[in-house]
Design a protein that fits this description.
With 184 residues, this protein is an alpha/beta fold. 57% of the residues lie in helices and 12% in strands. α1 crosses α8 and α4 runs parallel beside α5. Bound molecules: adenosine-5'-diphosphate.
Length: 184
């Protein structure tokens, strides 16, 4: 199964993606986690993207697409995967379609985690993960960028008839139960 989990910052994509990965035994690919780990390990990629993540801006499309394309070549992704944080812009979605087409594959489900904006800010500011982009000003910026750059990705996938909207308010277990119902 090839799944994209989509939603605004703070929607709980990472948390649910991990649960889905375990339950369905498919690898979890999180672009945000790749970038944070590269920054922590001070790799070349980490140096390139540190200032961008710190500011809550988006990493350029060509860089993200090249990264995901390389990753998906690994055989562990052959049997499916859950993508978290990608595609985040319409050009990324188009590039992802091309990657899939080249392999003769298609996306099975686009899970849209639906959470109201007040709830998002509250969650991010209280999650206490110590992320450098979790300050009030940067969260505001990330939400603004989400609305402008990322929200249109939803309309892109609506045309492909793969979107499943999940109510993202509730306990982690409640939300995961909703996801499992949809994936059955
Ligand atoms: P969140 O959804 O809470 O913002 P992520 O871990 O998905 O958290 O992303 C953290 C940051 O990593 C983003 O603010 C952005 O700077 C960068 N990033 C992650 N994925 C992408 C992507 N697909 N395109 C551009 N930038 C990305």
């Amino acid at each position: 199964m090839r799944i994209v989990i989509f939603g605004p910052p703070g929607a709980g994509k990472g948390t649910q993606a991990k649960l889905i990965s375990e339950e369905y035994d498919i690898p979890h690919l999180s672009t945000g986690e790749i970038f944070r780990s590269a920054i922590k390990n001070e790799t070349e990629l980490g140096k390139e993207v540190k200032a961008i993540l710190d500011a809550g801006e988006l990493v350029p499309d060509d860089k993200v697409v090249a990264l995901v394309k390389e990753k998906l070549k690994e055989s562990k992704y052959d049997g499916g995967y859950i993508l978290d944080g990608f595609p985040r812009t319409v050009p990324q979605a188009e590039a992802f379609d091309q990657i899939l087409n080249e392999k003769g594959k298609r996306l099975d489900v686009f899970l849209q985690l639906d959470v109201p904006e007040e709830e998002l800010v509250k969650r991010i500011l209280s999650r206490g993960e110590g992320r450098s982009d979790d300050t009030p000003q940067k969260v505001k910026n990330r939400l603004k960028i989400y609305q402008k750059e990322t929200q249109p990705v939803l309309d892109y996938y609506k045309k492909q008839d793969v979107v499943k909207k999940i109510d993202g308010v509730g306990s982690i277990e409640e939300i995961f139960d909703r996801i499992k119902k949809v994936l059955q």
